[in-house]
Write a structure and sequence with these properties.
Structural class: alpha/beta
CATH superfamily of the largest domain: Response regulator
Number of strands: 5
Largest sheet: 5 strands, parallel
Distance between the termini: 56 Å
Order of helices and strands: EHEHEHEHEHHHHHH
CATH class of the largest domain: Alpha Beta
């Protein structure tokens, strides 16, 4: 067993969420054989959220497609209530766009149910160590997605900037004319947290309105793109 980060002495604590009882049993058995502790099982997304917020596991292995609260909605709720939680999505779907969506929403990994089941414990340990866990075909799709640049330049970061990565995320969404609540939903943050980030952006950019911040974002990007005109405050 890999001994990094104390894993040799402290087994991973995992919650398995899947609406198929047989799948849960198979996953539990393979994880336990590898020395990983399955502290709870959930038969649906709502139960997964409640168990995760209560037990605070190292990893949640979450089925993507479940009736009621699906894996995507459950992941959003988990990250809203427990920032920093690590969710690895597992799915029988071959839809790569769904895989990308789960990563954008904060999942730290995406596995196919067609993967060799004996490799899942290794994947969860990698996720716990901070590695991205994605299949090769999705890695290529992810790189392609990152290379695509919006016409308004969203996603481009200047080499030198007073803003943090999170503040740039907020500013990018301001450039898309999103409201505070829409930004909060997109980034899985509270509205108060988003307001705090916006105040910090305005202060650091030395501007007094959101429209001025959008214009300053284009200026900081050094004219690499020609964005739309700034909206009024």
């Amino acid at each position: 067993m890999d001994g990094r980060n104390g894993l040799q002495n402290t087994p991973l604590r995992v919650i398995v969420a899947d609406d198929d009882a047989l799948v849960r049993r198979v996953l539990r058995d393979v994880l336990q054989r590898a020395g990983i502790v399955v502290i709870a099982e959930a038969g649906g997304g709502r139960e997964a959220v409640e168990l995760t917020l209560y037990y605070k596991p190292d990893i949640v292995l979450m089925d993507l497609l479940m009736p009621g609260t699906d894996g995507i909605a459950a992941t959003r709720e988990i990250l809203a209530g427990l920032p920093g939680a690590k969710v690895v999505m597992i799915s029988s779907s071959e839809d790569e766009e769904l895989g990308l969506l789960t990563l954008r929403l904060g999942a730290c990994g995406y596995l196919s149910k067609s993967v060799n089941i004996e490799s899942i414990p290794r994947a969860l340990r990698a996720a716990h160590d901070g590695e991205a866990v994605v299949p090769r075909r999705l890695t290529a799709k992810l790189i392609e997605s990152m290379r695509r640049t919006r016409e308004d330049g969203a996603g481009i970061r200047p080499v030198r900037s007073p803003l943090t990565a999170r503040e740039w995320e907020v500013l990018d969404l301001l450039c898309q004319r999103m409201s505070t609540d829409e930004i909060a939903d997109t980034l899985v943050l509270s509205s108060e947290t988003v307001r705090s980030h916006i105040k910090s952006v305005l202060r650091k950019l030395r501007v007094s309105s959101r429209g001025e911040a959008v214009a300053m974002a284009q200026e900081l990007r050094g004219g690499m793109v020609a964005g739309p005109p700034a909206a009024a405050a």
